[in-house]
């Protein structure tokens, strides 16, 4: 042993910028044509997140819907002005697996153009709504390459009833020439990938367990973790959606009241940065 301590790893903090009524699980209950009539709370929630990040000196990547950016351009500009990465979540939160190849290509190009026009910066990253790139639509990577994206973070290598590719690589890999796939982080335990990187799992599990799993990825795999959450997850006052199933209700609302405090602990316990600066070659990250 040389006695040298390993330097801490900077992990990637990611926020999927969508509002509560745009969640995929609510699609059977809320018509898209009703979106404009709903109370939109994303602006205040993103501003709270930006204030939180500023308090901890942390940077993040905001995967933002084109639909949101068109209505709240000031949010997009604040994200960029404060040194965070602006990335694409598609235009209207349609699952990639529910779109044809042509429709998907149009969607990701439209979202990229809107975000770049509003922000004045290059948009290099994309995350599919609900991690909806899988074995049945790997053509989506060809579309992302054609649209000029440099990376995707659209695969969650776990078993889940709505998404997941448990046999895909756990860490970043080149999925097409010049295009990286950067999977959401899992912890490998007894030949099984355990979800360890945010969302409903972070709200459900004890904070100490989530912290331990992220720490194991850093210390054991010596890899940067990718953590994600949504602005609506810190919003205890969001309107309740009526008539939804018990499982959907539990998944959406469980421990929302504890989320902000847990995020503050997480920001203090690990180092956090932008996806592009962690994973892309320096020349590409600087170009953004």
Walkthrough of the structure:
It is a single chain. With 288 residues, this protein is of the alpha/beta class. It has one domain (10-287): TIM Barrel (Alpha-Beta Barrel), CATH 3.20.20. The chain has helices at residues 42-56, 66-71, 73-81, 101-119, 139-147, 199-204, 207-221, 246-253, 256-269, 275-279, 282-287; strands at residues 10-17, 61-64, 85-88, 125-126, 151-152, 173-176, 179-181, 186-189, 192-195, 226-229, 271-273. Strands 1, 2, 3, 10 and 11 form a five-stranded parallel beta sheet that branches. It has a four-stranded mixed beta sheet with strand order 4-5-7-6. Strands 8-9 form a two-stranded antiparallel sheet. Helix 4 (101-119) runs parallel beside helix 5.
How far apart the termini lie comes to: 40 Å
Secondary structure category: alpha/beta
Helix % is 25-40%
Oligomer: single chain
Radius of gyration: 18 Å
Q: Give the H and E element order.
A: EHEHHEHEHEEEEEHHEHHEHH
Q: Number of helical runs?
A: 11
Highest-level CATH class: Alpha Beta
Question: CATH homologous superfamily - what is it?
Answer: Glycoside hydrolase/deacetylase
Shape: globular
- Please tell me the total number of domains: 1
Q: Which topology does CATH recognise?
A: TIM Barrel
Question: Whole-number average pLDDT?
Answer: 92
Number of strands: 11
Give a quick account of the main beta sheet: strands, pairing sense, barrel closure: 5 strands, parallel
Low-confidence stretches: none
In the CATH hierarchy, the architecture is Alpha-Beta Barrel
Beta percentage is 5-15%
